[in-house]
Amino acid sequence: MAYPADFKYTKEHEWIKVEGNTGTIGITDHAQAALGDIVFVELPKVGAELKAGSSFGTVESVKAVSDLFAPVSGTVTEINADLATSPEKVNSDAHTAWMVKVNLKNPSEVNGLLSSTDYDKFVAEEK
Amino acid sequence: MAPTEVAAPRKTALNATHRQMGARMVDFAGWDMPVEYPPHGDRKAGGLIAEHMAVRNSVGIFDVSHMGDIRVHGPEALAAIQRMTMNDASKLSIGQCQYSALLYPEGTFVDDVIVHRLGENDYLLVINAGTREKDVNWVVGQADGFNCRVDNLSDNYTQIAIQGPNGVKVLQKLTDTDLSQVKFYWFTHGTVCGLPNTLIARTGYTAEDGFEIYVPADEATSARVWNEVMEAGKEFNVLPCGLGARNTLRLEGKLPLYGHEISESITVWEAGLDRFLKMDKGEFVGRTALAEQKEEGIRRTLIGLENIDRGIPRDGYKVFDLAGKEIGAVTSGSPAPFLKKNVALAYVPVELSASDTELNVEIRGQMVKCKVIPTPFYKRPKKA
Description:
The complex is a heterodimer of chains A (127) and B (384). Helices cover 20% and strands 35% of the residues of chain A. Chain A is of the alpha+beta class and 127 residues long. A six-stranded antiparallel beta sheet of chain A has the order 1-2-3-9-8-5. In chain A, strands 4-6-7 form a three-stranded antiparallel beta sheet. The A-B interface holds A 33-34, 36-37, 39-40, 58, 60-63, 65, 91 and B 24, 35-36, 38, 47-49, 244, 248, 310-312, 314, 334-335, 337, 364.
């Protein structure tokens, strides 16, 4: 699975796509594969404040619970309510099954994230 | 070499086969084992839920070679087995198996075992991976003074479990033994994949019909048998299954897991396994303590829970009464793929164990309401 070049990535395996002042956040294909069948996604409410590097929710597979870490700071403007009833969409296409959209508090934080090439390398080294 | 170096995980003879099939491997009790087999190559289905459903609806196969095997044989083998296990092995016919347990004098668990009666004074104990060395030492110690031999055969066999309603059809293609004559919890010896005298037991750990076969532990033979079972199972959409599905299958059926529902600090009465405890068979290790405990009565018992509120209770999560008092802990908890709900087993005070009792499980700081439900969560349908 190729990692989209217009996304940025964290070492905790989240992706973020930035358009204007809005960041769309999800987990990577590598993360969904490592978790296995995803059965539950717990997301913050619209209006919640995310802090870069802090947990903002959880994703659970049959076997494991994993924290979601915010790639950037910002205010949640939208959540993907679809995942409440169809969490398996994260398995079938992790790079379109977004979790939250945020209004970026400090857009320069994005510069500290990994490019798709760097993330690909990071994942290869982790194996 | 640093003296603190951790021992490399042990591998079964099928390790390379699992990796070729794209298995995701994990360390389990010191063994490098497949946890699940995501879709890979020509195999379009896979992953824990698909594996679980394959076993419930058709057939799945597991490498369970990490389990141990101890043979006890000789003139006083039965007497030794009777002394070290809780069930009544004198009731076993040759070719029959029995669920039982090795107990400490306190009436708690060394391990649970399946006792197979191989011959007149010849028994095979199949034991858990995580307790192999402890069990072997325990059995050797308990057999001391009896005129019998204890052989640790754990490394001699590759043990493959073929589980699910179509398991019998798959295995029948690979053997000339008439499997319809082998009842549940019985075994026979026959030629499987051209290997004569193979132990074929109608046993398993999935709460489903199925077989476990014991073949020589060399890599080439093990891989050949595994691949032949996969090939024979193709028409039934067989899936290779990992420890993930093994755990959810056994949880739905309330089959205990050592270190969770049974341990050195949990008694037979508490675990609710007294239907396998034969207090009247004569003296055995643990009997005196168990008799006293029966007099006193038990304080905690193993119950089943399902959620009322959203959340997944998992192993180790704390259980509270509705007033907020901590009363116990979840021993095993997980989404149950066949039942399509989240279930958990937990030890709670007897007075809070009745069906429909509402309790809270603490999930990451939140109280999540659950209720006590009857167990096992899943029972396989009786044949028509």
